[in-house]
Amino acid sequence: MSDPTSPPGPKSVQDGPPEPDPRAADLQEEADRLQAEMEEARPPHGGPISQVAAALVALAVGVFGAVGSYALGLGRLTQPGPGLWPFAISVVIVVLSVVLLLTGRHLRDTERFSRSSLQTAAGVLSLVGLAVLLPVIGFEIPSLLLMFVWLRLLGKESWRSSIVISFGAVAAFYVLFVLLLQIPLPRLV
Amino acid sequence: MDISPILEGFGVVLEPANLLYCLIGVIIGMLIGVLPGLGPGATIAILLPITYSIEPVSAIIMLAGIFYGAQYGGTITSVLLRLPGEASSVVTVFDGFAMAKQGRAGTALGIAAIGSFIGGTVSIIGLTLVAPVVAGFALDFGPPEYAALGILGVLLISSVGNGNKLKAIIAAGIGLLIATVGRDTFTGAERFTFGSLNLAEGIDFIPIAMGLFGLSEILYNLEERHNRVHAPAKVGNVWPSRGDLRQSGGAIGRGSVIGFVLGVLPGGGAVLSSLAAYAFEKRRAKRPERFGQGAVEGVAAPETANNAAATSSFIPLLTLGIPANATMALMFGALLIQGIQPGPQLVTEHPDVFWGVINSMYIGNILLLIMSIPMVGLFVRILRVRPAIMAPITVLITLLGAYTVRNQVYDIFLVIAFGVLGYLMKKFGFEPGPLVLAFVLGSMIESSARQGLLILGGDPVGFLTRPISGTVFALIVVVLLWPLIRGALRRKTSHRVEEKISS
To answer: What is the ipTM of this complex?
Structure first.
């Protein structure tokens, strides 16, 4: 994973005007090195396909925006319609996405999805679950489930500590939000 | 200069209830900011709902506390875990972590707190003196100037930040586009609402910020990235010895000035200033080789400078209404939520609010110093808690917090949606910062541009011929062409640099 030829992602910490001072250049190198070292913890970069995909998605957003705002009516410069401004932005997005599509194929700043990305997906699902259940059965049980899922399944905590921490945290939330701050969260009873 | 509004502002800020809010802000700012992977931006985003329900003045004071607390939280993780919360603490890691390895983590944190306090205070004094002047100058600005300034602000953030510039500007464009969702204020037409009543009201700033800065960070970290965190170093005595203080005194003084000056610049002011301050100290040092091996000045200088810069970056925000970086974009959004429109009118029309903001920064800074030194031990204990346990708690705070703002489940879904968007953006090399910043400025740029067109009789050339907006547009061109200019400069010096790398 420590591929020395690939310092992926944000390469330079600082991008201000170039410092003429040689020591400052050293410092920039040091900062870069540190950044690169921390970047090593990142998964390998995604390669050209993900770059192209990213540019295409951006392009699609731009095209969608352009079509949608054109339909709203551009008006004239003396009397701008509701679509003029979004149309202008969308055109910029489209142009820049095309440039990205053409020139960005060999960038190394994307990250490959791995098995551990499934954890994130599972995490997101649990969040959606909470949002769906919250208005139906109140916040206590969904919060408890969310805590438990994250601790036991995503965090690989032991059964015992997962259960104890989940109950403890939800109890603390109850005291804080409901009893102390009296925020009208949907509740079980 | 009439100082009575300043003093009146202090009277408000020093009310016990407001002091308490500030104290709470500092503590929870530090509590969340110390969590690995959550930088100041994420911290402020997650805590936004807390400030929503309290009255404006107290809310601003609390925000100032959160702001400083979150900044210091990032310092703690830099020193103890080698995980800078944001780019401006990266240099602190060199000597901070080296000191921690030598068992001097306490000294590093203590000197960072003292330096931050002094740097912040110097900067606030500068802000007090400079801001009204700049604001007075900006009072003549009309809509064309604001449109130009807004565009410049968005471009600067996009082009000065980390990562690919093209992607950053695309992200900013998408942020501007998201800002147009909802009812058009000029014509009343519904834009990109798809018939949804929720979307017709536009998309709120809080769920966007919480999703893109807060939740996305947590989701990103779920991928085992921070599971192999170093065990935090032991923290001994936090009070720096007299020798340490003498050694770093000069560094703190110079760092304050460097930070204040560079922080005013839009873009990476804080980052640039921390690098510059560190470089400056290293150059002045009698034995520069100590740097990187645990030199106290190596912590004092960048920490002083980045706090001074973080504070002076309030100048463009409060006087021009242009946030200088992503964290300022959050503060901008937070002030807007309180019904405060940062800009040149603020100091003349709402001096109480203006001075309230500035004075609460004095207080936040002092409370940070008072709280950080005795409480460092507590925060170190939080760092010992496994990330797996902190993550779900933070997520719950985020989601339930988002709900409490308007008591709508819809907001939770928005936070999740923007959290996923932010996560995907990070995976594909897009920074969420420019998007949020552009979103914040979006409606201002649009309405100024349209009013400008009306004033100028529909002639866009007028934007270029008015002296101030023309100058700003010239700057915009420079910023756009900067990569090319710099590329040309780099090519000239590249030989030298290559030699240095190979040696």
So the answer is: 0.83
